[in-house]
Amino acid sequence: MKERMFTAVLLAATALVSPAAAADLVIKIGTVVSGDHPENVGAREIERLIEERSNGDIDVRIFTDSQLGNQREMVEQLRSGTLEMTWVTTGFFGSWVPELGALEIGYLFKDREHAFRAFGGELGEEVASRVNEHGVHLLGYFEAGMRHLTNSKRPVATPEDLAGLKIRTPKSTYHLRTLEMMGANATPMAFNELYTAMEQGVVDGQENPLSNIYSAKFSEVNDYLSLTGHLHLTHMVLYSDELWQKLTPEQQEIIHGAVQDAQQVQRDKVAADDASLLDELAAEGMTITEPDRDAFAAKVAPLRDDAIAEFGDTVVEWFEVIDDVRDEG
């Protein structure tokens, strides 16, 4: 009995001096993907850097696999001051800043380096100025990655092959319209609902980076992978503005610096996955095809004019900035 009481006292004392209890600030990071996904590699690097640079005064806790809700729910939690940090693509934030949807027009970026140049300069500054008016504080940019098509019906090599296929997309207007222009029956749906929807035949397929396709085990419900490379998406790393304003300048500096320094680690993981996962997905039984990307790009091209008609000079200037850095480096 005495031994059990001693153990209980010891455990209680240990809890009192644990890092979480000693921390002056707790930061929750919410994501919708699995723990080994590149997004969470980036999250763990943010965690490591913040806790190291704050000498344990800031405790970072990561919640993966939609534990805190889907992307829309977590953005609303940021805006209401009940969650510290998450990330969503620029187009997803179009619900609050509609013109951001134009940045998810197909084949706008030729490759990942092109996107890094654009968001690392004038475009990234312009996006931040608009996003920060809506209850969040933009800290940096993670790579969401180059997106490819999968489906359960047939190989896709041309736009004609997409006819009649129900393909899930995020709830982003120009992202959805890109898939429609490519020839698909585009169906918006939350990511955490997708596997079950494909398993039950509600949709025939989806489009995502290789890391998402692999980590979410989509090869179990889709047999065909087409390397369309139709969209390169960028995640905005967001902090609750309400909670950001409550931080000390020193805390703000540590958190902002950690996100900036974690960007390269996260992007390196995406690149490593892109280099290795095709073999893994083929080994899992997927049939992989290299489609005619120029044919798909030609179908999508009119969306630029549509965006200009809708948003005017704003997106004209954004497209000029993007095109100006297309072939630099």
Automatic annotation (TrEMBL):
Gene Ontology terms: biological process: transmembrane transport
GO cellular component terms listed in the entry, alphabetical order: outer membrane-bounded periplasmic space
Signal sequence segment: 1-22
Protein origin, superkingdom: Bacteria
Annotated InterPro entries: DctP_fam, TRAP_DctP, TRAP_DctP_sf
Compartment(s) of residence: Periplasm
Entry keyword annotation includes Transport: yes
Entry keyword annotation includes Cytoplasm: no
Similarity annotation: Belongs to the bacterial solute-binding protein 7 family.
The name this protein goes by in its record: Tripartite ATP-independent transporter solute receptor, DctP family
Annotated source species: Paracoccus seriniphilus
Lineage: Bacteria, Pseudomonadati, Pseudomonadota, Alphaproteobacteria, Rhodobacterales
